[in-house]
Design a protein that fits this description.
This protein is α/β, with parallel strands linked by helices. The chain is built from 14 helices and 15 strands. The strands form 4 sheets. The chain has an 8-stranded mixed beta sheet, with helices on both faces. Strands 11-15-14 form a 3-stranded antiparallel beta sheet. Strand 4 and strand 5 form a beta hairpin. The protein is globular, with a radius of gyration of 21 Å. The chain starts with 19 loop residues before the first helix and ends with a helix.
Length: about 400
């Protein structure tokens, strides 16, 4: 009989955050086992609730939310996003430059689909948020990974970026604050990236979904605020700053040198129209969120819950022999390194699988973020202090067994 197979376009598409290790975790849960999940930045299951005023406004407006909206989104939330770009110092943004989507993820796919032809290249950080690599590949493009330097607080290596530019390079992705490392880029580094984009006429795709999750008094600079002669596509949304992952409410802002991008913007508009519109209830949360009390500041304050859990996770990980980690300045994640001499791992997906099977802790292996070596993993520090302590204690116990086995084998 005829076999129906997936498209060849999916051959180079990978999203291990929700991959085979997670499938194993689901099976274990179905068997009644309790898993401590450190694998995904989904805030609600850990007790991080959206601001009540957002919920109440959505409930109030829901009876009138059954119809389609403009393909780019409702006027009021788009106007609120324009005001937000002004607060961030991004010049020249009007209503028509704002696209609302079903989360930033939909818009990332849209931005790549509207731009790329077969063989076009996009520079993407390594480690990355793997949606970018997958989206570029699915759009017919070629993802090219530039290295972020762990010894320099995970900042992008500008020299490596320059080495990897070819005549086929169309754009560069900048994830700041960064997932999976928790890095926050200084203005000077962002200016260097803008200069590279200027010299080579590249589009800058700026992911700023964590721009309010900042620790230790740090501030965030929007890269699109640094120039008006480069084209910027900036992504943001409610998922993280406003703990509203399931509302699927994100936006994309086109700014900078729009004159040379009229055809591309027409393509973005066409794709926005094809999916009709973003979900209306999610749109109705945006204006209230951006204009209301910014409760995220309480969570990242010196004694806020996220800060306390970041500090706890960092201290516990740094106590494990052979484990090092750059302390995050932003976001929800850590990207610890395992000393290859102590932990000679050749397959880090198997490492994550074994950790899950033996200790019931779910993490994501580093190669799932297109890191080239099997010596890192990502964890989120969202669980409460007791669960976080228990989870990292289990990781420490698992790694202790690995060290003993490695010494015995030697």
């Amino acid at each position: 009989m005829r076999e129906f197979r997936k498209s060849d376009k999916l051959a180079d598409v990978c999203y291990d955050i929700r991959g085979p290790v997670l499938d194993k975790a689901r099976q274990m849960e179905e068997d009644g086992q309790r898993i401590i999940k450190l694998n995904i930045g989904n805030l609600a299951p850990f007790g991080f609730e959206p601001p009540d005023e957002i919920v109440q406004d959505m409930i109030h407006n829901l009876p009138g939310a059954a119809g389609y909206t403009d393909s780019k989104g409702l006027f009021a939330p788009r106007k609120a996003i324009v005001h937000y770009t002004q607060e961030k110092g991004i010049a020249g943004v009007g209503i028509d430059d704002v696209f609302i989507g079903n989360g930033a993820s939909e818009l990332i796919n849209m931005a790549m689909n509207a731009l790329l032809n077969n063989g076009d290249e996009v520079l993407i950080p390594a480690p990355d948020y793997p949606l970018y690599t997958a989206s570029v590949a699915l759009s017919g493009g070629t993802p090219v990974h530039y290295i972020c330097d762990e010894s320099s607080d995970w900042y992008p290596d500008i020299a490596d970026i320059r080495r990897k530019i070819t005549p086929n390079t169309r754009g560069i992705v900048v994830i700041n604050p960064n997932n999976p490392t928790g890095a926050l880029y200084p203005r000077e580094l962002l200016e260097d990236i803008v200069q590279v984009a200027r010299e080579h006429e590249l589009i800058v795709f700026a992911d700023e979904i964590y721009d309010k999750m900042l620790y230790d008094g740090n501030t965030h600079t929007s890269i699109a605020s640094l120039a008006d002669d480069v084209l910027f596509i900036t992504f943001n949304g409610l998922s993280k700053n406003y703990r509203s992952c399931g509302y699927r409410s994100g936006w994309m802002v086109v700014s900078g040198n729009k004159r040379q991008a009229r055809d591309y913007i027409e393509g973005l508009t066409m794709l926005a129209s094809m999916r009709l519109c973003a979900n209306t209830p999610g749109q109705l949360a945006i204006q209230t969120a951006l204009g209301g009390y910014q409760s995220i500041k309480d969570l990242v304050a010196p004694h806020g819950r996220l800060t306390r859990q970041r500090d706890l996770a960092y201290e516990l990980l740094m106590q494990i022999p052979g484990v090092s980690v750059v302390k995050p300045k932003a976001a929800l994640y850590m990207f610890p390194r395992l000393d290859p001499k102590m932990y000679p791992i050749s397959d880090d997906q198997q490492f994550a699988y074994d950790l899950l099977a033996q200790e019931k802790v779910l993490i994501v292996q580093g190669t799932g973020f297109n890191w080239p070596h099997p010596d890192h993993f990502r964890l989120v520090f969202l669980p409460n202090a007791d669960d976080l302590t228990e989870a990292i204690g289990r990781i420490a116990r698992f790694l202790d067994r690995m060290r003993k086995q490695s010494r015995a084998a030697a």
